[in-house]
Amino acid sequence: MARLIRPTWAIRCVQSGCKTLFEVAKLEDGKQQEVVCPNCGEHYVYPIVGENEDENK
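Structure (tokenized):
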């Protein structure tokens, strides 16, 4: 039986033919990381910085 050791987030691939949901490690504030979808190989950078700033303008 597997055990969760660190906090995680879930990312869903946005490629139309994939839509795989996969887990990534939760990062410290201000840090970003590049991850690759395990199913199709699409690259993502998370968390997206500046997303909330645009909503407040």
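Residues 3 and 23 are 14 Å apart (CA to CA). The helical segments are 51-55.
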